[in-house]
Amino acid sequence: MTNLAHVGGSDAFAIAARLERALADKPRGLIIDGRMVPSVSGKTFATCNPATGKEICRVAQGDAADVDLAVQAARRALSNPAWRDMSAVDRSLLLNRLADLIEREAQELAVLECIDNGKPATLTKAVEIEGSIKTFRYFAGWPTKFGGETLPVSPRSGARILNYTVREPVGVCGLIVPWNYPMSMAAWKVAPALAAGCTVVLKPAEQTPLTALRLAELALEAGIPAGVFNVVTGFGDAGAALVDHPGVDKVAFTGSTEVGKAIVRGSTGNLKKVSLELGGKSPQIVLPDADLDAAAASIASGIFFNQGQTCTAGSRLYAHADIHDDLLARIAEHAAKLTIGNGLDPAVNFGPLVSEEQWDRVSSYVEIGQREGAELVIGGARPQGLDEGFFFQPTIMANAASSMRIVREEIFGPVLSALRWSDPEDLVAQANDSDFGLSAGIWTNDLKQAHRMAAAVKAGTVWVNCFNLVDNATPFGGFKQSGWGREHGRQAMELYSEVKSVWINLS
């Protein structure tokens, strides 16, 4: 894989300046039926650099009319022999070719994501770009391995019957992705959908549309037929139109639980299939025998990585009373060492929040926590000297209680709420006392306790003595209001396919 260690510093600033000059020339259009086109209305909106608060460029503002055109293109492509009858081997080759092109454009994509999302270029390189390459390569292996089976049946008639199942693409997929990991979240959905033979209409978040558009351009360059991969940029009305459209067979969404519920309601018109990866309020459970140095480093990373704008962020810390103060002090030390600033600087490992709206949200939760009685240990405000952009300090709130909003509600920012515990049974009850169940972290050197806790915690992913590890081979998703279905692995392929049972009378 391309070495991107030099992304950051003067190279990154120069690439960013060149990209911004090119983007400012004309608005970025929608990708529909293999072409970049303006929106039907002609409207555009601004996408901004979170590190400066300044406009990068204008982007076409799609709405229901544009969604309809994109869905029509996707439906035509679904029956186009060039895609419909493509062999499994050839589909694999296309996905690998797309991965090659992402790798070729890795430097520019890393910087593009940095200026549009705000996270440091070193992280966009490692997480967004390298992660997307791995995702497309992983799912490129599935078309030749994903199929049906022959089944022994016992019909009442006593006839000799051959029964077999086949896997068919579910159809046109509406993919709606968030702003916190724009490119990798798009890859998580686009790759298995294409591997299964579906066609897609991708709706990126309005805050971060640029890498989605570039990804679709690279897909066309890779040879994916026109209409197979469409992108409609815009606001919530475009997403709602995609959910409501009768020509869409499946919706896959990553984002807030509130919007996820609205998607479920909107999908009932034609009973389209729905998969949802929603909010989280992940507990970090630390037992008294844990390695506190390792736990503190990982807990700090688990809440402050990507400025806390992560669905799995370990935002609820349950530390045993005997080690609570020591652990909190160690986490605070890690937070204090973070270098905050423009993510184009290679020394920076903590960038801005994505928008002014998100900054206001995080700030309001810190105020709410203090009013409810939590103690502000560190952070809670804009860093000194960073007057432009949407920067917010890594924040720790101590003396939190299960009833507080900062413990119960997803903040989606760099805010850790710390709680003490002493009774293991009460600990499990507290950890599970949440509407969410996406993930959890457990820290202990006691193997029996680790297994018991992992079994007791209600979450789709449980990490023991580690946190925030994901892989394309293992399922990812949540319990309770954290979603429906699973990303990655065979489970993702199943989400984008239908099973057909065929009965042949051989008598």
Provide a quick synopsis of the model.
The chain has 507 residues and is of the alpha/beta class.
Structure commentary:
The chain has 507 residues and is an alpha/beta fold. It has two domains: 10-278 and 483-501, Aldehyde Dehydrogenase, Chain A, domain 1; 283-471, Aldehyde Dehydrogenase, Chain A, domain 2. It has 17 helices and 22 strands. The protein has helices spanning 10-24, 64-79, 81-84, 88-104, 106-117, 121-140, 182-195, 210-222, 236-244, 257-266, 292-304, 324-336, 356-371, 405-408, 424-432, 447-456, 489-495; strands at residues 30-32, 35-37, 44-49, 54-60, 150-151, 161-169, 172-176, 199-203, 229-231, 250-254, 273-277, 283-286, 316-320, 375-378, 395-398, 415-421, 436-437, 439-443, 461-464, 479-480, 483-484, 497-505. It has a seven-stranded mixed beta sheet with strand order 14-15-16-13-12-18-19, sandwiched between helices. Strands 9-8-7-10-11-21 form a six-stranded mixed beta sheet, sandwiched between helices. Strand 7 (172-176), helix 7 and strand 8 form a beta-alpha-beta unit. Helix 6 (121-140) packs parallel to helix 7 (182-195) and helix 11 packs across helix 12 (324-336). The longest helix has 20 residues, at 121-140. The chain is globular and about 75 Å long. The relative contact order is 0.13. Keywords: Oxidoreductase. Residues 40-502 form the Aldehyde dehydrogenase domain. It comes from Novosphingobium jiangmenense. InterPro entries: Ald_DH/histidinol_DH, Ald_DH_C, Ald_DH_CS_CYS, Ald_DH_CS_GLU, Ald_DH_N, Aldehyde_DH_dom. Belongs to the aldehyde dehydrogenase family.
